[in-house]
């Protein structure tokens, strides 16, 4: 199989697959009532999935080949704390970015 | 009609800050995609059809490691399983729309407008579903347009961005900034902590399935704590 066909199979499958995941409940379940226990679990999708996605990236950053990095760890902590206290996403991101660049500058 | 338009622009304004979040992320995807040998056309089709950064990065990473096609697809879709959970949790709000409207809503469902819309719908429960759709699509517009434009610029001018800019950490900072405001109750906090512990403990599980395990464990923890707190507060 050529490299191009390989790539296009991946692009098309991911495009179709991602749409199906997005449409799964919204399209097939429609306005039927979902059971309370399911809703109770679904309330925590974002607050569970996002930290799970981000934790390995913070502890084992790809840019340092998975080596523990104080600058990235400090940036992550500052972003979380500012976000939790101010509830302001943009402020949290700016604080995190400044911490990261300052930390990288110090360790350079 | 007027109220739909108002809701669209309100969603648009509420998700404007995400532009700053999405741009570095899209630029980075464009840069890495072209460096991995994708053409501009391939990069853009990829980004417009999938619209899910984490899954796209996963696919690129595995492509560069000569992983079998089926494993790449399964891994990237595993990272995207959270979209099915978003789809389920937004269904009580958008489920009564027509099929065409739901097809559009599903296509435009991403992390950022999901987060913005769920916050809005929880704090303003008396919105009609057409107002909710307007808000949801409004919140999608700045995110998706900046995502596509940033990818395009990344793919065309990307090679000149020096590695000192540490763009790799734009994604973690984005996600972390989104988590802080979500930690509203001790149930949310328990959910996040259990998810983090499980994500790190199950990082060895192949194909990114550790993420799914951690997500499910975190959801169960949050639901359980909420259930216990409710039972304690009611006589």
The averaged pLDDT of chain B comes out at 86
- Helix fraction of chain B, binned, reads over 70%
Strand fraction of chain A equals: under 5%
Given helix and strand content, the structural type of chain B is mainly alpha
Distance between the termini of chain A: 45 Å
Enumerate how many helices of chain B there are, as a single number. 12
How many beta-strand elements of chain B? 0
Number of discrete domains of chain B = 2
> Which term fits the overall shape of chain B?
globular
Total number of strands of chain A: 0
Low-pLDDT residue spans of chain A: none
Helix content of chain A: over 70%
Number of separate structural domains of chain A: 2
Largest interface: A-B, 76 and 93 residues
Class per helix and strand makeup of chain A: mainly alpha
Averaged pLDDT of chain A = 85
How do you describe this structure in short?
The complex is a heterodimer of chains A (108) and B (235). Chain A has 108 residues and is mainly alpha-helical.
Walk me through what this model shows.
- The complex is a heterodimer of chains A (108) and B (235).
- Chain A is an all-alpha fold and 108 residues long.
- In chain A, helix 4 runs antiparallel to helix 5.
- Helix content of chain A is 78%, strand content 0%.
- Chain A starts with a helix and ends with a helix.
- Chain A folds into 2 domains: 1-32; 45-107, no CATH class.
- In chain B, helix 1 packs across helix 9 (129-157) and helix 3 packs antiparallel against helix 9.
- Chain B has helices spanning 2-15, 17-35, 40-50, 53-64, 69-79, 81-94, 99-107, 111-123, 129-157, 170-182, 186-201, 209-233.
- In chain B, 79% of the residues lie in helices and 0% in strands.
- Chain B folds into 2 domains: 2-168, no CATH class; 183-235, no CATH class.
- The model of chain B has no long low-confidence stretch (mean pLDDT 86).
- With 235 residues, chain B is mostly helical.
- Chain B is globular.
- At the A-B interface, helix 1, helix 2, helix 3, helix 4 and helix 5 of A face helix 2, helix 3, helix 4, helix 5 and helix 6 of B.
């Amino acid at each position: 199989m050529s490299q191009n066909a390989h790539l296009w199979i991946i692009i098309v499958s991911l495009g179709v697959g991602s749409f199906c995941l997005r449409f799964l409940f919204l399209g097939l379940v429609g306005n039927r009532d979902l059971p309370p226990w399911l809703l109770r679990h679904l309330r925590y999708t974002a607050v569970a999935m996002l930290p799970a996605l981000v934790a390995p990236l913070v502890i084992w950053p790809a840019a340092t080949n998975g080596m523990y990095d104080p600058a990235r760890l400090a940036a992550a902590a500052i972003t979380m704390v500012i976000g939790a206290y101010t509830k302001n996403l943009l402020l949290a991101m700016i604080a995190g970015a400044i911490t990261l660049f300052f930390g990288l500058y110090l360790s350079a | 009609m007027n109220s739909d338009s108002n809701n669209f622009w309100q969603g648009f304004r509420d998700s404007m800050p995400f532009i700053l979040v999405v741009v570095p992320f899209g630029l980075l995807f464009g840069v890495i995609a072209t460096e991995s040998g994708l053409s501009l056309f391939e990069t853009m089709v990829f980004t417009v059809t999938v619209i899910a950064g984490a899954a796209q990065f996963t696919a690129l990473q595995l492509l560069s490691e000569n992983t079998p096609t089926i494993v790449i697809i399964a891994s990237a879709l595993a990272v995207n399983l959270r979209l099915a959970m978003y789809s389920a949790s937004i269904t009580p709000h958008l489920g009564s729309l027509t099929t065409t409207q739901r097809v559009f809503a599903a296509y435009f469902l991403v992390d950022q407008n999901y987060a913005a819309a769920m916050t809005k719908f929880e704090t303003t429960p008396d919105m009609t579903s057409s107002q909710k759709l307007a808000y949801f699509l409004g919140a999608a517009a700045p995110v998706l347009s900046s995502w596509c434009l940033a990818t395009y610029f990344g793919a065309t001018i990307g090679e000149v961005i020096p590695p000192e800019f540490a763009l790799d950490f734009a994604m973690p900072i984005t996600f972390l900034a989104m988590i802080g405001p979500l930690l509203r109750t001790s149930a949310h906090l328990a959910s996040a902590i259990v998810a983090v512990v499980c994500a790190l403990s199950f990082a060895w599980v192949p194909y990114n399935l550790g993420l799914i395990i951690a997500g499910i464990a975190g959801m169960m923890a949050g639901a359980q704590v909420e259930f216990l707190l409710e039972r304690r507060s009611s006589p």
